[in-house]
Amino acid sequence: MNFFNKSIILKKNTILFLSIFIAVFFTTCKKLEFERVMDVRTDEIKISGTSVLVYGTVLDVGASNIISHGHCWSRNPEPSINDFNTNLGSVIMTRDFFSKLNNLTPGITYYVRSYLYDGNEYTYGDVVSFEITADDIQFVTSNIKKLDATSIKLSSSTKGIGSVNFSNHGHCWSQIDPPTINDDKTAFGPFDSDTTFDSKINNLTLGRYYIRGYLEAEGVIIYSNTLTYESLITINTDQITPNLDNTAIAFGTIKSLGVNQIINYGHCYSTVTSSPDLNSTSEHNSLGPSNQLGSFSSELTGLVSGRVYYVRAYATDGINVYYGEIKNFIAN
Length: 332
Known about the structure:
Elements: H1 3-28, E1 38-48, E2 51-61, E3 68-74, E4 84-85, E5 95-100, E6 109-117, E7 122-124, E8 128-131, E9 138-146, E10 152-159, E11 168-174, E12 184-185, E13 196-201, E14 208-217, E15 220-230, E16 234-242, E17 248-256, E18 264-270, E19 283-284, E20 294-300, E21 308-316, E22 321-323, E23 327-330
Antiparallel strand pairs: 1-2, 2-5, 3-4, 3-6, 6-7, 6-8, 9-10, 10-13, 11-12, 11-14, 14-15, 16-17, 17-20, 18-19, 18-21, 21-22, 21-23
């Protein structure tokens, strides 16, 4: 066989091979299909004081419509949509987004991640952890206003609450410094934004008190500065009962104590002046020291029948004398 015939045979074989290859290729090859899947990324966390912003990126919306997206967070290392979450609505294309978190407690580690939801399933981004402190919350108690002898009103304000939710707030007070929420207190319940609140405190009758505001969040307690209030001795003049033997029984009530103890109390009385006191123009009796609230009585002696007497209760701490209202009666 010469070279020319060999070339013809080779060309025929090549054409046959190519024909078989093309036939097999077009009968067996399938079109390559790429399935799009939802994909989301959790980006940076920005913490400013107690305000927390979390960012995310929608990397792919998948083949279905995204009906909601946002962030979810929890104390659980794997937060889900069943925990605290934001819902930023539907999305039809890749985009960046952010959420402001709430319901946070200072000093607790939280975990957060982005999510997408297409109506059938959730896709989550990576988990990121963070923690906030209460150091930047400004919490001030001020403006004690005396309402009467035993009642006051005071005010507190907050600034920089940010993403923190508090379960309770109010004022607490005690005669021991510092007061805590285990002492007497007012309670105004939960709040989640900066606020100003007032408390009216009654029955401050025992001298020196320490008072401050409190914020409570799941066992974490934040206190304001402490103020001091000092009650004064207050005493009432009550009923006067004349007797037939030139005496009378006078009644009174110690309503509140001061910082200094009462060293003497009783009644002073006079026919000379309508404002009896402890000076030489008035008579008085002495019941001695007291550190108790409540009613008392004393005897008025040496009275002159038919005369008008002016009486009032008194108490002294050795520095000041405190008087009740003036009453009068006619001796028998």
